[in-house]
Amino acid sequence: MIRKTRICVTCKVEKGIESGTMNDNWQTPPDNLEISPRHVDVWLTSTEKGEAQIRAYAMSLSKAELARAQKFRSKTGYREYITTRGLLRQVLSETAGLDLAGVDFMYGEHGKPCLDARVSGKTVAFNVSHSHGLALVALTPGGRLGVDLEKIRPEVEWRELAGRYFAEAEFRALENRPQGDGLRAFFACWTRKEAFVKALGAGVSYGLNQFDVSVGPEEDYAALTIRSQDEDADGWLVKNLPVPDSHVAALAVDRPACGFRLWHVGHKL
Ligand SMILES: CC(C)(COP(=O)(O)OP(=O)(O)OC[C@H]1O[C@@H](n2cnc3c(N)ncnc32)[C@H](O)[C@@H]1OP(=O)(O)O)[C@@H](O)C(=O)NCCC(=O)NCCS
Q1: CA 162 to CA 26: how far, in whole Å?
Q2: Are 269 and 2 in contact (CB under 8 A)?
Q3: Helix and strand counts by DSSP (H, E) for the chain
Q4: Given 91, 226, 231, 250, which is the most exposed site by the fewest CB atoms within 10 A?
Q5: Reported pTM
Q6: Ligand 1 atom with least separation from CA of 202
Q7: Are 60 and 21 within one domain?
Q8: Are residues 241 and 166 part of one domain?
């Protein structure tokens, strides 16, 4: 059964986020926070938790999630998965009023988790991402939503990957970035593209060269151009998320007028 615990921000003790690279864009959530149709709520957490917290998160997961967790060969993968799912369930419970005890998520054709509205009685769009010690959970009542977080890894052959997977305009824009900025711009572009295809639920099967995003890491919002007729770029917002400098993150949502609330979370379970 999911534990009904208050989300308690313990920024000072969160390993990794305490490192000084964190910025004050991420706020302490107020008591009794509720999701709102005017906002997307985004939660950032370190996944480097103590054993007690990992155990407490694990207790909130379904049997199927626990079985999946057991399949991770690395301890890091195991902990990231448990933390992200645990936080997702906690936030859905506390801010969307959903009692998900024993309830499994449903999965779309390409593996996107969602809620069965017949069971939950509510429509809540959510998405998660985790990478090398950090995790993001994003949610809002309804619509389509995707989030992506990546650690900036210098060993990545970004020119080769961009040339192979990105649209031509993106590749050219990356080539034209100032000296030394290409890698970060590549990851900014990557997370924006991933966030968009995750919002659609299609993953990379959508075709990463079927749409363009702007690549400047300094942009709060990315420009989006969609080639196919099935989506209208004006109906989307692709936002940069100000995560610690070690990572880059983006969020895509099909509600261009909505605002964002960024919450920095630690847990006392
Ligand atoms: C899920 C996917 C869309 C992104 O995966 P990722 O970036 O490796 O991992 P993230 O941490 O960002 O996201 C994983 C989470 O997204 C969710 N997810 C899974 N499939 C999804 C889908 N089709 N759409 C949206 N979300 C999905 C899950 O909750 C998953 O978390 P979990 O495994 O802990 O349950 C993956 O299927 C994919 O296509 N990866 C390809 C990555 C790639 O080659 N990118 C090229 C550069 S652009």
Answers
A1: 31
A2: no
A3: 7, 12
A4: 226
A5: 0.90
A6: 23
A7: yes
A8: yes
Low-confidence ranges of the chain (pLDDT < 70): 1-23, 266-269
Pocket residue to mutate for ligand 1, from 194, 211, 241, 253, most atoms within 8 A of Cβ: 194
* Pair 184, 66 in one domain: no
SS3 content of the chain, % helix, strand, coil (to 5): 35, 20, 45
What is the DSSP pairing of strand 259-264 with strand 39-46?
Answer: parallel
Atom from ligand 1 closest to the CA of residue 85: 34
Q: Which of 249, 222, 226 is nearest to 237 (CA)?
A: 222
Whose alpha carbon is nearest atom 36 of ligand 1? 203
User: Domain check: are 95 and 159 in the same one?
Assistant: no
* DSSP-assigned beta bridge partners for residue 128: 137
Q: From the CA of 31, how far away is ligand 1's center (Å)?
A: 31
Phi, psi of 91 (to 5 degrees): -65, -40
Residues 180 and 112 in one domain: no
Q: Shortest CA distance to 126 belongs to which of 66, 58, 198? A: 198
At 116 the pLDDT is: 83
Ligand 1 centroid to Cα of residue 244, in Å, is 20
